[in-house]
């Protein structure tokens, strides 16, 4: 079983992203579940959403404390919340950041527990494709490219179940743009 923890702020679509992601896994014949965790339920407050997927039914319905991957939808959360805590397994981080991967001082900005990182300017892509800085669909595209755990086409097919038809085209464009733009780096830890 793989576990994923998404970090975002209220109104950025992290909870919807977790539901879209689970549906994409189901499209591919896997089992999955998701659940949100809200602190203060208000727009802009930090929140987490949790995803599990496996080839077998999943009975566990708790928060994810030891994820295989973290998706950080809002770049300001890296300094406000311990987003990398508990990483295990493949230890992958998918980050929204406007800086190029070679401009980020990775050893200082991430713990030694991260093996692989994908960085994309999801905010810029979201503004260009859908007109607002809601980065959830962009980050799902970056997640697919970084991990290889799910096909981008499965994620795009899931959009139809969760997004207003008027917003579908822009969000599909955003996911595809982020899939192409994400910069992936394997980290060497000593």
Describe the protein's architecture and organization.
- The chain is α/β, with parallel strands linked by helices and 190 residues long.
- The protein has one domain: Pyruvate-ferredoxin Oxidoreductase, domain 3 (3-Layer(aba) Sandwich), CATH 3.40.920.10.
- It has helices at residues 14-27, 77-80, 106-109, 122-130, 136-147, 152-162, 165-181, and strands at residues 2-9, 31-38, 46-54, 69-72, 92-96, 116-120, 183-186.
- The chain has a seven-stranded mixed beta sheet with strand order 2-3-1-4-5-6-7, with helices on one face.
- Helix 5 runs parallel beside helix 7.
- The chain is globular.
Provide a brief overview of the structure.
The protein is an alpha/beta fold and 190 residues long. It is built from 7 helices and 7 strands, in the order E-H-E-E-E-H-E-H-E-H-H-H-H-E.
Provide a count of the helices. 7
Q: Main sheet?
A: 7 strands, mixed
Helix content: 25-40%
Element string (H = helix, E = strand)? EHEEEHEHEHHHHE
> Which fold name is given in CATH as the topology?
Pyruvate-ferredoxin Oxidoreductase, domain 3
Keywords:
190 residues, alpha/beta, Pyruvate-ferredoxin Oxidoreductase, domain 3, 7-stranded mixed sheet, 37% helix, 23% strand
